[in-house]
Amino acid sequence: MTSEPVRYERHGAVACITIDNPPVNAASAAVRAGLVDAMARFAADADARAAVLTGAGRGFVAGADITEFGKPPQPPTLPEVVAAIDGQTKPVVCVLHGATLGGGLEIALGAHRRIALAGATLGLPEVSLGILPGAGGTQRLPRLAGLEAAIEIITSARPIDAARARALGIVDAVVAGDDPRTEGLAAAQALMTEGPPPPRVRDLPAPAVDEAALAPLRARIAAAHPGQIAQVTAFDAVVEGAALPFADALAHERALFVKLMDSPQRAALVHAFLAERRAARLPELDGVAPRAMDRLGVVGGGTMGAGIAAACLLAGLDVTLIERDTDAARAAADRVDTIVQGSVARGKLRAGRHAEIMATAFRTATDYAALRDADLVIEAVFEDLDAKRAVFSELDRACRPGAVLATNTSYLDIDAIADATARPADVLGLHFFSPAHVMRLLEVVIPARTAPDVAATGLALARRLRKVAVRAGAAEGFIGNRILQATRASADRLVLAGATPAQVDAALQGFGFAMGPYAVLDLAGIEIGQAARRRLGVTAVGDWADALVDRGALGRKAGRGYYLHDGTRPPPPNPEAEALIAEARARAGVTARTIPDDEIVARVMAAMVNEAARVVGAGVARRPLDVDVVLVHGYGFPRWRGGPMHWADAQGLDRIAAQITGWAAEDPAFWRPAPLLADLAARGARFADLDDG
């Protein structure tokens, strides 16, 4: 940060106030204090007839200072800053460029006039952190944009572009220039010739409220964010505040803001936000430069390989895809083309760019020699150790010295794959999640022999692809799939004891998971879980899954699995699966009991946390926060609960350890407290204590 995060200069009769707090001009305590001082100076400056407020660098103000999250607030508060701007009797022009988010937009809403450069984006994303705009955003935005548009912007947390902001009246003009100060000076000069300053936003009429008409909208927002409180609280702040005098509305907004600040959901969402940023920061790689990675190779053009290739193309990389023969290569190219073309339909890519990418940056081949100039090659063939070793043997011969060789395995021993080459230091794992062009998580698996700059290259590729990277050790299943095995095993034990798959799924969805484990198996294919168990030598709790596979009930693609997939929503349970489960209970001598939903959640979560503690204890995950990031981004764990380790800390590790110890009486082989969990529980410590170690 510069020594003066807010600068005051005068250009003729115009005060130029510049926020300069790189890299994103976050509204830190120093910036807030600087803005209050600058506004006081402007008010006292008899020679200044107008003020222009701009941000230095690449944007105006991109929100709060994340280094202040979780700390006691330092004065002045953001509402005091906005009040200092809002209270000026001389006009203040705010010029928006780059990102104007959260508190940045609330600052701008305190100005008399707002000008946006053409590339600006605006938004109020506070609900994504479990709070709401607390400096007047819920009251000023509806006065400009209207009630429903403001509610959508605030509760969705999605930014809008400058053109949309102009159409809604949030900004007064969109200009084509590229210098915020120049455009602001022009607007200020115009204001000084217009007579009295334009009305403050607070003096505009509040939108009319029809609470009965808005009730369905509130219900839709609640349904879209099950279990979460920030979105509906923000809705209430907007609607209830519109019926109050402005000062009372601000007080009401602030009271709701403070209530959310004290909520467990806010703490969980802030933890998730900070964990994502810390996960890819490895102290041992500080100062280590990644290798070149402009030209990529992908081996295997199935669903996963095509998704990886498309993700790389959309990130501006050059890709050569290898398939076994011409027909397979043609099919792979079609898959990649469909994905890239889909980005145009979703507005992620301009129309002409699709054809340009496919013509100039992508090609297929059937000969590994086509990879001789590749900087990094990602193998994405089916999950078989011998097949992957054969690919790496070919890559070892074909690729230039220094090329990074990556495997997309989900479970397999990367050291055994690397042994198929004469260059194990160049090998690492890149565990993409399907669909690879959509899922944000990337486990960067770093075996002991991997060179530091190769590890740095894997993390740099994740950043290039805009993925959330987590370092994982080279162990069976890495972080996520190893924890998933234990989680599914606990679910199967509940089903054997008397729960139904549908009940387990419903209980975990009620907890906040995107899908339950049996719905996930139906989506992926039940035979995939069977193959993984056999490969790992894991004995199933019951044999009903194997029986379903034998009968062709593979899940959604077969029209039946644990559920019947006949177009009914939600899909009903499959009686065939229920009968097979009943037979498995009879063979095991189990009398089915009624299991309440809270016990289902308690057992599944305890199994998840216990295995995660083993993963951290073994160093497969470096820190508990790494587990949280993996489970949130790759396995549907509710973000608003922070991740399993954060959730466990909130419950109390002693309580979870005691539950596991109690269940050990019925199944001592499965219910054994992990040493790390037992140690932390005994000491009254938390997983979070290990995140800073």
The radius of gyration over CA amounts to 28 Å
* Fraction in helix: 40-55%
What is the CATH superfamily classification of the largest domain?
2-enoyl-CoA Hydratase, Chain A, domain 1
Shape: globular
Specify the CATH class of the largest domain: Alpha Beta
Q: How many H/I helices? A: 28
**Alpha-beta content class:** alpha/beta
Summed over residues and divided by their number, the pLDDT gives a mean of 94
Query: How would you characterize the largest beta sheet?
Result: 8 strands, mixed
User: How many strand segments?
Assistant: 17
Q: Any idea how many domains?
A: 3
Instruction: Give start-end ranges of low-pLDDT stretches.
Output: none
* N→C terminal distance: 27 Å
Strand ordering within the main sheet: 12-11-10-13-14-15-16-17
Q: Report the sheet-strand fraction.
A: 5-15%
- CATH structural fold name of the largest domain: 2-enoyl-CoA Hydratase, Chain A, domain 1
CATH architecture of the largest domain: Alpha-Beta Complex
